[in-house]
Write a structure and sequence with these properties.
Low-confidence stretches: 1-7
Radius of gyration: 14 Å
Largest sheet: 4 strands, antiparallel
Number of helices: 0
Shape: globular
Structural class: mainly beta
Mean pLDDT: 79
């Protein structure tokens, strides 16, 4: 497979999972991005688009507790778009994960 070599940006956070559940993640980005949870790649979007942003989805089973979430992405200078949303279990609606959630917890 093709590996993303450019690591321009890196966001990290911790996801609090209230009960053991399958989580579905949806990624929307201009040029390429990857969601890694507890070191496992869950969504891998690797593309260069000159037209529209691209989308990808992935699912992972998560146990109750804190899980480390890393997002790697790269962008062309003149376009920046990155949205992440998630839903758990059989919920119908995705919830957007807003940028203020992507902070390292206070040490």
């Amino acid at each position: 497979g093709s590996e993303m070599c450019i690591r321009d940006r890196h966001l990290t956070s911790y996801l609090e999972v209230p009960v053991d559940e399958v989580y579905h993640f949806h990624l929307h980005a201009d040029d390429g991005a990857r969601i890694v949870i507890d070191g496992e790649v869950v969504v891998d979007l690797d593309t260069h688009s000159y037209v529209d942003a691209w989308e990808a989805e992935g699912s992972v089973g998560l146990k109750q507790g804190l899980h480390r979430v890393d997002i790697y992405y790269y962008q062309d200078a003149h376009r920046t778009r990155l949205t992440v949303k998630s839903r758990k279990g059989d919920e119908a609606e995705y919830q957007y994960i807003t940028p203020d959630l992507w902070q390292m917890p206070a040490q």
